[in-house]
Amino acid sequence: MAYHFISFLILLSLLALPNPCFSHYINNNGGQLYPQFYEHSCPKALEIVKSVVSKAVAKEARMAASLLRLHFHDCFVQGCDGSLLLDSSGSIVSEKQSNPNRNSARGFDVVDDIKSALEKECPQTVSCADILALAARDSTVLAGGPSWEVPLGRRDSRSASLSGSNNNIPAPNNTFQTILTKYKRQGLDIVDLVALSGSHTIGNARCTSFRQRLYNQSGNGQPDRFLDQSFAVQLKNRCPRSGGDQNLFFLDKVSPTKFDNNYYKNLLASKGLLNSDEVLFTKSQESMDLVKKYAENTELFFEQFAKSMIKMGNISPLTRSNGEIRKKCRKIN
Questions:
Q1: pLDDT of residue 219
Q2: Beta 25-26 vs 248-250: how paired, if at all?
Q3: Which of the residues are catalytic?
């Protein structure tokens, strides 16, 4: 009897110990995501993803921003389920054709390379949705940003949503309230909005994404009064009233390939490129205060960015028997 009681006490004490394997993120399907998900089924998974991403970013620095953006655009449509990666076939109409993604979403070849390497190591084990989450973290780190443990265990969708992609992803010319509403719809808040927008410290945007700010911001033929005039003149050189739609511009002209807090400093100086950037500093006191804090304190920004990325990565993942593990990320099995 005493033996059983002592065994019971030992079991209780073990359960009381903090175990990193139990630090998980519950989702609506009752499943759970946790960083050690592939520890036994594919021990080299994280190492493989990092290796392929490192080579791709070394070859082209812009790729870090492109891979980070893929995760964002995936999670805001049907949750983080790899739906963005699917090509059109049969009943599937690809999200790649949506307004936010057409002619701008990129990095699909890198995802293919990662998937191919993982399939050789551990066939049909690591999901495309998890590849996007890991590639986003690794890209951030390679660009000089923060690191975080990525909760894993997502499965891949068997469907895509073109309408969801068109309607749920915040657009560059959306109002502040519309952008915040789109974040709240995903269970994210104003802190997440301001922190995640900081990803615009790296990457590029097309002329067509901000042209209205230069020539006709409010429908009165006038430029955006919140855009620095000398900065506007520079932009007009390569972003004329018509033509040059696909011309690329750095989202952060100060340090375009370095993940830092210059994005927020640019907003303070009225040199945010997109309307969706500048409204964070001009349309809400709460977001303005956050912009100021992150402009002053890189560490604070990095800390919140990591937290918000984990939170975003947990939007409605498919787990357990839901979805599938695709053999190739561009098509369902």
A1: 86
A2: unpaired
A3: 73
Name residue 205's beta-bridge partners. Answer: 249
> Residues in the chain, how many?
333
CA dihedral 224, 227, 232, 235 (to 10 degrees): -100
Q: Is 264 helix (H, G, I), strand (E, B) or coil?
A: helix
List C-alpha distances in Å: 3 to 6, 10, 14, 16: 5, 11, 17, 20
pLDDT at 173 over 80: yes
* Cα distance between residue 176 and residue 283, in whole Å: 7
Instruction: Tokens for 250, please give them.
Output: 């750095």
C-beta separation of 53 from 138 below 8 A: yes
- Global pTM value: 0.90
3-state secondary structure at position 25: strand
| CA of residue 25 relative to chain centroid, distance | 18
Q: Which residues pair with 228 in a beta bridge?
A: none
Question: Nearest to residue 66, comparing CAs of 101, 96, 115, 106?
Answer: 106
Question: What is residue 241's three-state secondary structure?
Answer: coil
